[in-house]
């Protein structure tokens, strides 16, 4: 008999399939990068297809040139990169390698949810430290992390910059967090998926290369979300441990890896334009918020390619505002996607998108707020 879990999964999948196939949908809800790809990236993929280079398996750890390029991009000399089917596959791999039943996995609230599911799937318990709200500065205080650590804490998971809040740790905070994790004999998973968008960012692996595992993604800065290519960067001894039982020992997509290598080669030329546009889009939304009493952007500027908007002062629910925009084929995200505890306070809007999408979003804002006031939110949201 089919399980309730499977039925729920298939229903969610079918709804998302419908979204992907919706013509003209404005993707302002997934933190995906919709900037036009550099011609060199497109050519790398087209050449792979023309030459039919996809008939063979890729090297299990990824092409050597790509592995070296990832390490160099973060400046983590002496570390090793293992290429994966997107950053989420690296997180799955690390959680299943490091955690066992009875271990504890500590992270923030909000955080990215899937690593918590991976931890629970191997029998570990999850502890979250609330960071939402002005009383916490929307960030993790190292003293609160230290207080939350216990004798069973095996892994600390830090999304930095935080998704969905857009805050980034200072150098002092990273140094304190690294020392706390080291003293506990735990491991730090430093998820740097949004590092490239940060105004300032500090790598924990530079302070403790042996017990820090750094997560790298091509989905966001290079816009390869649908191709699924990412990596984990770790000390060579840890990389060897991870390489013993990877989730995909036949190598990640050759097409995706070719695109990623081409992207690293043109990054300095192409990405500054993407960064400038998304920051300009943030400013456009901030200006619109400032014109609407009750609508608040609590973190500005954001260190991610997204912003959070608090709806409590408007007297509407995040779900209602999401549903209103959904009627206009604009996808934004309700806070409950990220956190059941604070999800009733905010929506998240992605900004690494064409400017005209953001202009449409802000132009519709007054009307969508009014539409949301009387809306029945019993609709499918993703």
Automatic annotation (TrEMBL):
UniProt entry tagged with the keyword Transferase: yes
Cofactors (names): pyridoxal 5'-phosphate
CDD domains in the record: AAT_like (cd00609)
Enzyme Commission designation: 2.6.1.-
SUPFAM superfamilies (alphabetical): PLP-dependent transferases (SSF53383)
Catalyzed chemical reaction(s): L-aspartate + 2-oxoglutarate = oxaloacetate + L-glutamate
Domain Aminotransferase class I/classII large: 27-362
InterPro entries referenced in this protein's UniProt entry, alphabetically: Aminotransferase_I/II_large, AspAT/PAT-like, NHTrfase_class1_PyrdxlP-BS, PyrdxlP-dep_Trfase, PyrdxlP-dep_Trfase_major, PyrdxlP-dep_Trfase_small
Pfam families for this protein: Aminotran_1_2
Molecular-function GO term, any one: pyridoxal phosphate binding
Gene Ontology biological process terms in this record: amino acid metabolic process
Entry similarity comment: Belongs to the class-I pyridoxal-phosphate-dependent aminotransferase family.
UniProt cross-references to PANTHER family, sorted A to Z: ASPARTATE AMINOTRANSFERASE (PTHR46383:SF1)
Protein name according to UniProt: Aminotransferase
Gene source species: Methylobacterium aquaticum
């Amino acid at each position: 008999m089919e399980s309730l879990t499977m039925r729920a999964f298939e229903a969610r999948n079918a709804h998302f399939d419908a979204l992907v196939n919706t013509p003209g949908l404005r993707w302002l809800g997934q933190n995906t990068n919709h900037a036009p790809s550099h011609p060199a990236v497109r050519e790398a993929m087209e050449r792979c297809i023309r030459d039919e280079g996809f008939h063979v398996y890729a090297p299990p750890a990824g092409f050597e040139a790509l592995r070296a390029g990832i390490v160099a991009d973060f400046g983590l000399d002496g570390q090793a990169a293992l290429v994966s089917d997107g950053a989420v596959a690296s997180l799955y791999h690390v959680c299943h390698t490091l955690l066992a039943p009875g271990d504890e996995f500590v992270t923030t609230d909000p955080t990215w949810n899937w690593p918590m599911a991976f931890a629970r799937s191997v029998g570990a318990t999850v502890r979250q430290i609330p960071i939402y709200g002005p009383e916490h500065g929307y960030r993790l205080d190292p003293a609160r992390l230290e207080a939350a650590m216990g004798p069973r804490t095996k892994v600390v998971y830090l999304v930095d910059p935080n998704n969905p809040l857009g805050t980034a740790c200072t150098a002092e905070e990273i140094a304190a967090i690294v020392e706390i994790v080291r003293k506990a004999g735990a491991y730090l998973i430093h998820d740097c998926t949004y590092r490239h968008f940060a105004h300032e960012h500090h790598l924990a692996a530079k302070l403790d290369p042996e017990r820090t595992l750094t997560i790298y993604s091509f989905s966001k800065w290079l816009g390869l979300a649908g191709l699924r290519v990412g990596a984990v960067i770790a000390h060579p001894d840890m990389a060897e441990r991870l390489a013993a039982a990877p989730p995909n020992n036949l190598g990640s997509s050759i097409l995706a890896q070719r695109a990623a290598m081409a992207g690293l080669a043109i990054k300095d030329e192409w990405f500054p334009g993407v960064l400038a546009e998304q920051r300009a889009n943030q400013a456009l939304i901030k200006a619109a918020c400032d014109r609407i009493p009750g609508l608040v952007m609590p973190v500005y500027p954001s260190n991610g390619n997204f912003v959070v908007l608090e709806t409590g002062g408007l007297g509407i629910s995040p779900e209602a505002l999401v549903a209103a925009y959904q009627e206009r084929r604009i996808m934004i995200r309700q806070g409950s996607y990220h956190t059941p505890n604070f999800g009733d306070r905010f929506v998240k809007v992605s900004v690494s998108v064409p400017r005209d999408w953001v202009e449409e979003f802000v132009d519709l804002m007054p009307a969508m707020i009014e539409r949301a006031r009387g809306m029945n939110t019993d609709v499918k949201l993703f």
